[in-house]
Specification:
Elements lengths: L1 E3 L13 H14 L15 H10 L1 H8 L3 E5 L6 H8 L10 H22 L5 E5 L20 H21 L4 E3 L1 H6 L13 E2 L5 E2 L1 H12 L10
Parallel strand pairs: 1-2, 2-3, 3-4
Antiparallel strand pairs: 5-6
């Protein structure tokens, strides 16, 4: 099952699949078993809303409790608050996103803990997808106030959320994919649109090729379930 925001719903994939379904297909091919996707990610869902749902929505809790694979793709919707703060003139640059990524770090740690608690001692594959720097190369379509600082902000938010996401899932026996390095190179500044991995028209999401690459990277983390700590 999938949890998160539009980063996990397939937005940007011209073929309408998304990395979650593509990953499920790869798992099915590797294991020789049927894989059913329970899609519980929602466009626009912040990590705060997801955490509340995991604690209060019994239907969602039941779904997590019965899921052999739990994949998380969150954090993108959280960044809208930073954009709003900058647009309102209350801050500028990375300073607008510092409280946002700090709040996300707290939430994603609690989300991973909640998933682990709901799964109990049942063997589980817990995985998380992180995000690329999707701003470099999109200066002509992102808000004008953000464009001059696109690379600086893009690297900052992607690296911050990657680090907190990977720490959160690894603490409970899970693993993550470092999309920033895979898409934007070792320093995170390469243009992933030029590399053919991001969708410029449906900005700023991975395109079909990018979503397939993400699914392949996720498969490389292994498919052996284990008890979550």
């Amino acid at each position: 099952m999938s949890l998160g925001d539009s980063g996990a719903t397939g937005e940007g994939d011209e073929e309408g699949l998304g990395w979650v379904q593509r990953y499920a297909d790869l798992v099915a091919g590797r294991t020789g078993t049927d894989v059913e996707v329970v899609a519980r990610a929602q466009n626009g869902q912040t990590s705060e809303v997801l955490l509340a749902a995991l604690r209060e929505d019994q239907s969602l809790r039941d779904d997590v409790g019965s899921a052999d694979f739990v994949v998380i793709g969150a954090g993108g919707a959280d960044l809208n608050a930073g954009d709003d703060a900058w647009a309102a003139g209350s801050c500028s640059g990375t300073a607008c996103y510092e409280p946002v990524v700090a709040g996300y770090a707290t939430n994603i740690a609690a989300i991973a803990a909640e998933v682990a608690a709901l799964r109990g001692d049942q063997p589980t594959v817990l995985r998380a997808m992180t995000g690329p720097n999707a701003l470099t190369g999109a200066e002509d379509v992102i808000p004008s106030f953000l464009a001059p600082s696109a690379t600086e902000v893009g690297v900052f938010v992607a690296r911050s959320e990657r680090d907190s996401t990977c720490t959160a899932v690894r603490e409970h026996g899970g693993e993550c994919v470092d999309v920033l390095t895979a898409f934007n190179g070792p320093d995170g500044t390469a243009d992933a649109y030029d590399a053919g991995l991001l969708n410029h028209e449906d900005c700023c999401y991975p395109n079909a090729e990018g979503q397939q690459r993400m699914a392949e990277l996720l498969l490389e983390t292994g498919v052996e379930p284990q008890a979550l700590s």
